[in-house]
User: Fold this.
Amino acid sequence: MSWTETHRRWQALREIETLANAGAEALPWNAEYADLFGHPDHLVAALRYRWKLTRDAQLDTHLTEQALEEQRRRLVERHAGVLRLLRAYDGTVVVTAQPEPVPA
Assistant:
């Protein structure tokens, strides 16, 4: 995948996040997204990956439990639209307070 294609995919994900935060109830899908992602399942996988990166980057496990929970709550609140779309798509979003371990 070229830099241009990667940039287009990330730009599309940001557009979808904007739509989700504006209240979209269903996963957005159009010809451009089909060209970029191939299938709605692949778009969902990309949204999940973006959520995982965001969560892992923004949840500091060195915080106290109370501070970590507050940060998690704010993170979920900021990304509620995307999480709602993911739940509506297949109902398997898992929101955890701690980042998932990275395999060695």
